[in-house]
Amino acid sequence: MQLPTPLIEGRLLKRYKRFFADVELTDGSVVTAHTPNTGSMSQCAVPGYSVLISANDDPKRKLKYTLELIRVNDHWVDTHTQRTNRIVEEALQDNKIAEFIGYKLKREFRYGASRIDFYLEKAEEKVLLEVKNVTLCEKGVARFPDAVTIRGQKHLLELKEAVTQGYYGVIFFLVQRAEATSFSPADEIDSEYGRLLREVVAAGVEPLAYKTLVSPQENRVGQRIPAVLD
After folding, report:
1. In 3D, which of 83, 99, 76, 69 has the Cα closest to residue 174?
2. Are strands 20-25 and 30-34 parallel, antiparallel or unpaired?
3. What's the whole-model pTM score?
4. At what angle do helices 150-164 and 191-202 cross, to 10 degrees?
5. Which domains does the chain have, with CATH numbers?
6. pLDDT digits (tens, 9 = 90+) for 101-146
7. Are 39 and 67 in contact (CB under 8 A)?
8. How far, in Å, CA of 125 to CA of 166, rounded?
9. Regarding beta strands 8-16 and 20-25, do their DSSP bridges make them parallel or antiparallel, or are they unpaired?
10. What's the rounded Cα separation, in Å, for the pair 142 and 149?
11. Are 34 and 20 in contact (CB under 8 A)?
């Protein structure tokens, strides 16, 4: 999908209170940008890193600027989690995800006590697909989550239950790190999530991990990488 234009270059000074980031622009001025990401962003929100922000003149907004991309290890990383589902939706609609070519989709499908990101349908097959945004990467291995996620644990259990009801359950990890060659759960951060992920996969839920192709102009789904749970 296309990113907002034009994007403004800057340098991250600090991220605080989760949703705020102070950014020094190239002219030396400092602005505060909204940070649409509830995770720790431990490898991304590093003071001194290059960033790209967008501006919005809507008078109803509390902050004029939004943090869009962060430069990590010579690659742009999209930390804007409100964009994650739209990137996956575009790829599904354009048949860029090999496992789901030709499927019809609905967003925000209510199942149990949750809203699963996508319901996909083709012939007799019914798919529930939940998307997670991945910005953590260690030695080429993309990791999730980057903070304890009770909500993420709940989604795994909902997918497991859906499989018993005849659905095909998929947990889809959208990996924003270009250097990643595989995906594994971050057990040292949320051991319960890692345990549940292995449990639900053993029960029939499929883990899919796809990398994104990110530039200052666009973010789109790229190649699949293996999900390693051993």
Report:
1. 83
2. antiparallel
3. 0.95
4. 10
5. 8-78 (2.40.50.580), 81-225 (3.40.1350.60)
6. 999 999 999 988 889 999 999 999 999 999 999 999 999 999 999 9
7. no
8. 9
9. antiparallel
10. 17
11. yes
